[in-house]
Amino acid sequence: MADRVVFAPTEEAARASVERDGEAFLLECRDLSRSGGIFRARKVPDEELITFLRQWQVLLRAGTPVAQAMAGAVDRKERTALARMLRAARGDIEGGRSVSEALAPFPRAFPAHFVAALSVAERTGTLPDTIGRQIDYLARMRDLRRTVTAAAAYPAILLVTLVGVSIFLLLYVIPNFAQIYSDSKAQLPAITVLFLSASAGFSAYWPWVLAVLALAVAALRLAWRTPARERLERAMLSMPKIGAILMDQILSRFSRTLSTLLRGGFPLLDSLRVALDVVGNRHTAGRLRKVADRIEGGESLAAALRSDGMLPEIAVRLVDAGEKGGNLPEMLDEIAAYSEDDLRHRIKVLTALFEPLMMLFVGLVVGILVVAIYLPIFRIAGVVG
Fold first, then answer.
1. 289-317: per-residue pLDDT in tens?
2. What distance in Å separates the CA atoms of residue 202 and residue 184, rounded to the nearest whole number?
3. Distance of alpha carbon 53 from the chain centroid
């Protein structure tokens, strides 16, 4: 019996997939998300990966053998992580392994859904087409991330500026005025006393303050890897405005990935289980896993999604139309496009509302600090006059 490779989000799902067919035994389970040794530390940049895939695709279309095309798409002098991965993969391919098996240990560059599509493409002789779909997928996901990042950049810059100005005032400006107030023996307003105390405390204990903040950040990062993450994600999805933006992101990634796998010839149930890993939300992935279980029980994808009630009704209707019309991948692309357009609109509206509020908040905080510093000087000047 020939070896068989099964891609699934969990070991249990992989075993269940094999047991359903009844023709193979699962001899080894390997967690691709944790494999790859030194290559696991950092994700390969999208631009670098897209460039390689385009060159690889062109060489394959020209009739170049897979291993030679892979070598030709990478400069031998390159010392990037991707180049090292590809040199290792090329050696495995020349040693007799399939392309999907050779690339599977490097999920930071070649995620499970792409490797799964490659395994089908090798059997059907559609490797260049599958690579082309991955290029399109990566480009769309890159544009989506840029949209979200650009929207978050301005508020982040304002917050960093506010924190920097506040620290500068507390460490360098207010202490100088504190000596003036002490010499004047004047009665200070309550707000000035509050900021003087904060400045004195921060000046004396700022290393400890920074240490506590660093520990808090580390604790949050640790909590993000625990079951508490799922509860936090569920809470974020229920937040007004923010929840809708997150759902648009999830729906776009999920639909694009599922469409890519289906176009590559991967079965629906296996495609759905592989696509769970790309949604980036454990709570949503858990609910979609129950949808997969419903499909395994005989329900259609649209019926299972409608029973779950998580996705918007328009998405469920498009899935239903795609299943009935035999063009589910096209309908999934429509869902992704709709979600991305909706995401851009929501971000535009939220940014238009949020930016003035952020400016007002920063101005208010800085204004309060300035008033607290100079108000006693005006009072002292009035008494002297």
1. 888 888 888 889 999 988 888 888 888 99
2. 24
3. 21
Task: Give the ranges where 29-111 is alpha helix by DSSP (H).
Answer: 46-61, 66-72, 81-94, 99-103
Q: What is the pLDDT of residues 133-173, one digit of tens each?
A: 888 888 888 888 888 888 888 788 888 888 888 888 778 87
Tokens at 47, concatenated: 């631009």
Q: How does 115-142 read in b/e, with b if 16+ C-beta sit within 10 Å? A: bbbbbbbbeeebbbbbbebbbebbebbe
If asked whether residues 225 and 157 sit together in one domain, one would say: yes
What pTM did the predictor assign?
A: 0.68
| Whether 268 contacts 288, CB under 8 Å | no
Token pair for 181: 């107030």
Cβ–Cβ < 8 Å for 17, 8: yes
Is 381 inside any structural domain? yes
Q: How many CB atoms lie within 10 A of CB 274?
A: 25
Domain end call among 139, 156, 188: 139
- State the Cα–Cα distance between residues 26 and 23, nearest whole angstrom: 10
Domain final residue, candidates 139, 165, 194 = 139
- Residue 230 DSSP code: H
List the structure tokens of 30.
């390997």
DSSP secondary structure letters along 236-291 = HHTSTTHHHHHHHHHHHHHHHHHHHHHHTT--HHHHHHHHGGGS--HHHHHHHHHH
**Statement to judge: residues 172 and 47 lie in one domain:** no
Residue 108 domain boundaries: 41-139
Question: In terms of domains, do 21 and 68 share one?
Answer: no
- How many domains does the chain divide into? 3
Contact 127, 66 (CB under 8 A): yes
53/20 same-domain check: no
Residues 246 and 383 in one domain: yes
Query: Do 219 and 356 sit in the same domain of this protein?
Result: yes
359's tokens: 């400016």
Q: Are residues 269 and 352 in the same domain?
A: yes
Question: DSSP label at 39?
Answer: G
